[in-house]
Amino acid sequence: MTKQRVSTNDAPKADHILSQGIISGSNVYVAGQIHNTADGTMIEGSVREKMAQIMQNIAAILKSADCELDDVVKVVIYVTDMAQMPELNEAYPTYFNEPYPVREAVCVKELPLGATIEISVIAARDVA
Protein backbone atom coordinates (compact mmCIF):
# COMPACT_ATOMS: atom_id res chain seq x y z
CA MET A 1 0.00 0.00 0.00
CA THR A 2 1.30 3.44 -0.85
CA LYS A 3 1.52 6.44 1.42
CA GLN A 4 1.00 10.03 0.32
CA ARG A 5 2.11 13.00 2.43
CA VAL A 6 -0.52 15.63 3.27
CA SER A 7 0.76 19.18 3.63
CA THR A 8 -0.73 22.66 3.97
CA ASN A 9 0.53 26.13 4.84
CA ASP A 10 -2.69 26.68 6.83
CA ALA A 11 -1.49 24.59 9.79
CA PRO A 12 1.78 24.46 11.73
CA LYS A 13 4.58 23.00 9.64
CA ALA A 14 5.88 19.58 10.48
CA ASP A 15 9.56 19.16 11.21
CA HIS A 16 11.60 17.68 8.38
CA ILE A 17 11.23 14.20 9.88
CA LEU A 18 7.46 14.46 10.46
CA SER A 19 4.32 14.77 8.32
CA GLN A 20 1.22 16.85 9.00
CA GLY A 21 -0.78 13.95 7.67
CA ILE A 22 -0.60 10.79 5.59
CA ILE A 23 -3.10 9.29 3.17
CA SER A 24 -3.00 5.50 3.09
CA GLY A 25 -5.74 3.74 1.17
CA SER A 26 -9.02 5.39 2.12
CA ASN A 27 -7.73 6.68 5.47
CA VAL A 28 -6.21 10.03 6.35
CA TYR A 29 -4.03 10.10 9.46
CA VAL A 30 -3.54 13.58 10.93
CA ALA A 31 -0.58 14.08 13.24
CA GLY A 32 -1.21 15.37 16.73
CA GLN A 33 -2.00 19.08 16.68
CA ILE A 34 -1.41 21.43 19.59
CA HIS A 35 -2.85 24.90 20.11
CA ASN A 36 -0.42 26.86 17.96
CA THR A 37 -1.08 28.82 14.80
CA ALA A 38 0.37 28.17 11.36
CA ASP A 39 3.18 30.63 12.16
CA GLY A 40 3.97 28.79 15.40
CA THR A 41 2.38 31.22 17.87
CA MET A 42 1.05 29.31 20.88
CA ILE A 43 -2.57 30.15 21.72
CA GLU A 44 -3.20 30.64 25.42
CA GLY A 45 -6.54 31.09 27.15
CA SER A 46 -9.44 28.80 27.83
CA VAL A 47 -9.71 25.15 26.85
CA ARG A 48 -12.37 26.19 24.32
CA GLU A 49 -9.97 28.73 22.71
CA LYS A 50 -7.16 26.19 22.58
CA MET A 51 -9.44 23.56 21.11
CA ALA A 52 -10.67 26.01 18.46
CA GLN A 53 -7.09 26.48 17.23
CA ILE A 54 -6.39 22.75 17.29
CA MET A 55 -9.53 21.97 15.34
CA GLN A 56 -8.72 24.74 12.84
CA ASN A 57 -5.33 23.09 12.26
CA ILE A 58 -6.91 19.65 11.88
CA ALA A 59 -9.58 20.95 9.49
CA ALA A 60 -6.91 22.60 7.32
CA ILE A 61 -4.90 19.39 7.08
CA LEU A 62 -8.02 17.36 6.33
CA LYS A 63 -9.04 19.86 3.64
CA SER A 64 -5.69 19.38 1.90
CA ALA A 65 -6.57 15.66 1.75
CA ASP A 66 -10.07 16.38 0.36
CA CYS A 67 -11.69 15.57 3.72
CA GLU A 68 -13.54 17.44 6.42
CA LEU A 69 -14.30 17.00 10.10
CA ASP A 70 -17.43 14.97 9.25
CA ASP A 71 -15.10 12.31 7.79
CA VAL A 72 -13.30 11.78 11.12
CA VAL A 73 -13.82 8.30 12.57
CA LYS A 74 -11.35 8.37 15.48
CA VAL A 75 -10.06 11.08 17.79
CA VAL A 76 -7.24 10.81 20.32
CA ILE A 77 -6.98 13.62 22.87
CA TYR A 78 -3.98 14.16 25.12
CA VAL A 79 -4.28 16.56 28.06
CA THR A 80 -1.84 17.50 30.79
CA ASP A 81 -4.63 17.87 33.36
CA MET A 82 -7.89 15.90 33.42
CA ALA A 83 -9.58 18.98 34.91
CA GLN A 84 -9.65 20.28 31.31
CA MET A 85 -12.03 17.50 30.24
CA PRO A 86 -15.38 19.03 31.29
CA GLU A 87 -14.78 22.16 29.18
CA LEU A 88 -13.34 20.06 26.37
CA ASN A 89 -16.41 17.81 26.46
CA GLU A 90 -18.66 20.89 26.15
CA ALA A 91 -16.82 22.10 23.03
CA TYR A 92 -16.28 18.68 21.43
CA PRO A 93 -19.76 18.15 19.94
CA THR A 94 -19.59 21.54 18.19
CA TYR A 95 -16.97 20.09 15.83
CA PHE A 96 -18.54 16.72 15.05
CA ASN A 97 -21.96 15.37 14.10
CA GLU A 98 -23.59 12.14 15.19
CA PRO A 99 -22.57 9.46 15.05
CA TYR A 100 -19.59 10.92 16.86
CA PRO A 101 -16.13 9.50 16.14
CA VAL A 102 -14.73 6.98 18.60
CA ARG A 103 -12.51 8.76 21.08
CA GLU A 104 -9.71 8.24 23.54
CA ALA A 105 -8.64 10.76 26.17
CA VAL A 106 -5.24 10.31 27.78
CA CYS A 107 -3.62 12.35 30.53
CA VAL A 108 0.12 12.86 30.06
CA LYS A 109 2.83 14.57 32.06
CA GLU A 110 3.68 17.10 29.36
CA LEU A 111 3.22 17.91 25.66
CA PRO A 112 5.45 19.56 23.04
CA LEU A 113 6.21 23.27 23.37
CA GLY A 114 4.37 23.50 26.69
CA ALA A 115 0.96 22.76 25.16
CA THR A 116 -1.78 21.49 27.46
CA ILE A 117 -3.90 19.77 24.78
CA GLU A 118 -2.98 17.72 21.71
CA ILE A 119 -5.43 16.04 19.35
CA SER A 120 -4.88 13.60 16.49
CA VAL A 121 -7.52 12.13 14.19
CA ILE A 122 -8.12 9.47 11.59
CA ALA A 123 -10.57 10.23 8.79
CA ALA A 124 -12.11 7.88 6.23
CA ARG A 125 -12.56 9.30 2.77
CA ASP A 126 -14.60 8.11 -0.14
CA VAL A 127 -12.35 6.60 -2.76
CA ALA A 128 -13.98 6.08 -6.12
What's the topology here?
Blueprint: E1 3-6, E2 21-24, E3 27-34, H1 47-64, E4 72-79, H2 85-91, E5 102-107, E6 117-124
Parallel strand pairs: 4-5
Antiparallel strand pairs: 1-2, 2-3, 3-6, 4-6
Task: Kindly describe this structure.
The chain is of the alpha+beta class and 128 residues long. It has a single domain (3-124), classed as 60s Ribosomal Protein L30, Chain: A (2-Layer Sandwich), CATH 3.30.1330.40. The protein contains two helices and six strands, in the order βββαβαββ. The protein has helices spanning 47-64, 85-91; strands spanning 3-6, 21-24, 27-34, 72-79, 102-107, 117-124. The chain has a six-stranded mixed sheet, with helices on one face. It is globular, with a radius of gyration of 14 Å.
Short description:
This protein has 128 residues and is α+β, with helices and mostly antiparallel strands. Helix content is 20%, strand content 30%.
The CATH topology corresponds to: 60s Ribosomal Protein L30, Chain: A
Please tell me the total number of domains.
Answer: 1
Which CATH top level class fits? Alpha Beta
Return residue spans where pLDDT drops below 50 for at least 5 consecutive residues: none
The overall pLDDT, averaged over residues, is 94
Instruction: From the alpha carbons, calculate the radius of gyration and give it in angstroms.
Output: 14 Å
Full CATH superfamily name: RutC-like
- Report the helical percentage: 10-25%
Shape: globular
